[in-house]
Amino acid sequence: MNNLTELEVEHLRHIIGGHGTVATKLDNYAQSCTDPEFKTILQRDAQAARQAKQQLMSFLG
Is residue 46, in this structure, part of any structural domain at all? Predict the structure, then answer.
């Protein structure tokens, strides 16, 4: 667990969950968006949130 304290793990899980929520919301916004340029921005940001979530999850393993 990379010598993380219980509190640090709890905080990390909270942050990971937040990134997951942001990615889901951005995906939903992108699906309902009619502006192609804005839709692309939302999709790109959702992907970035998913990547950040994956990187943070590596600290738990």
Answer: yes
Q: Can you state the angle between helices 36-57 and 6-32, rounded to 10 degrees? A: 160
Q: Structurally, how many domains does the chain consist of?
A: 1
What are 26's two structure tokens?
């951005």
Spatial separation of the C-alpha atoms in residues 41 and 47, rounded to whole Å: 10
Domain assignment present for residue 4? The answer is no
User: Could you list the residue range(s) of the whole structural domain that residue 49 is in?
Assistant: 24-61
What predicted TM-score, i.e. pTM, was given to this entire model? 0.88
Tens digits of per-residue pLDDT, 33-53?
A: 999 999 999 999 999 999 999
